[in-house]
Amino acid sequence: MPETLSTIVSPEGSLEVLSQSEVNRLRDTSGSGLHDLLRRCALAILNCDTPPTTVWR
Fold first, then answer.
1. Cα–Cα distance, 54 to 57 (Å, whole number)
2. What contacts 18, CB < 8 A, 6 or more positions away?
């Protein structure tokens, strides 16, 4: 069984607060929403081959 990792992802700077419109666009699963793009980007980051001790700033 693969090892389970725990992580915390937190925004910095202007990404700390999203407007209701921005949240709605991220949650929108239709073709015009950003849900699929956000999902693919998040999966790409989670699946990258970077050692867990590396901190990106």
1. 10
2. 26
